[in-house]
Design goal:
Elements (H helix, E strand, L loop, with lengths): L1 H4 L4 E5 L2 E5 L2 E6 L2 E12 L4 H12 L2 H19 L2 E5 L5 E4 L3 E12 L5 H8 L10 H11 L10 E5 L5 E5 L3 E5 L4 E5 L10 H23 L2
Antiparallel strand pairs: 1-2, 2-10, 3-4, 3-9, 4-7, 5-7, 6-7, 8-9, 10-11
Length: about 220
């Protein structure tokens, strides 16, 4: 159901962690390195004109552009330690999914060393999009305030080969299956920056639960 409904996402089922993530942490193909940054979100309404208006408002939102900029800078800085010929677009585009629209930027570079995909992922994770910035301070605040264990949520998930090529997504819009208890713990979240509105952020998180909820509801009805 996830693969069918979200064909532009990376669908995964690894050691009881299942989901469909739209965010590419890193891909290595030879010396070409790519990372897709997503930060800044609005829910889709199902009406083409309204969704277009919402996308334009997202592109003009100072709050969302600032959130996106933090995430792009963190990825570009991490990749710059391994890459040359960096391409970091100045302005994001809008990525449309079935349930939401995201500000998106694809950051690319050419390897200047022999870093494997695992090394690249280690340099990138955790990105500002899932952790915050500066990283160490953000991790401290998360441990103090979040009140839960993320487990493998927001971690790298993907594959690599013997040449060091492959790709890792960020484990978002996912659930951790406990087959013994016959339960699943679903995860979704959003970034908090200056100007964030709690009600809007809660609505965004609920919208991000839609992929897993829909897949579970479809599975339970078959």
């Amino acid at each position: 159901h996830l693969a069918r409904d979200y064909p532009t996402c990376w669908t995964f089922n690894v050691a009881n962690l299942v989901g469909a993530t739209p965010e590419l942490l890193v891909r290595r193909t030879g010396d070409l390195v790519t990372s897709r940054v997503l930060a800044g979100t609005v829910r889709r309404r199902g009406d083409t004109e309204e969704d277009h208006s919402l996308a334009q408002a997202l592109l003009a939102s100072d709050k969302d552009l600032a959130e996106h900029s933090y995430a792009v800078r963190s990825v570009a800085k991490a990749l710059a330690t391994h890459c040359t010929d960096m391409d970091v677009p100045e302005n994001p585009t809008v990525l449309e999914l079935a349930n939401v629209q995201h500000l998106a930027t694809d950051v690319t570079g050419r390897l200047a060393d022999d870093a494997s995909l695992l090394s690249l992922a280690a340099s990138l994770h955790p990105t500002a999009a899932v952790c915050g910035t500066p990283t160490e301070r953000a991790l401290t605040v998360i441990s103090e305030l979040e009140g839960m264990s993320r487990d493998r949520y927001a971690g790298p998930v993907g594959w690599f080969d013997t040449r060091g090529d492959g790709e890792f997504g960020i484990a978002l819009r996912c659930g951790l299956v406990d087959s013994q208890a016959n339960t699943i713990r679903a995860f979704a979240g959003c970034g908090i920056v200056a100007g964030s509105d709690p009600e809007h952020e809660l609505a965004e998180s609920r919208a991000k639960f839609i992929p897993m909820r829909s897949a579970l509801e479809a599975r339970s009805s078959t």
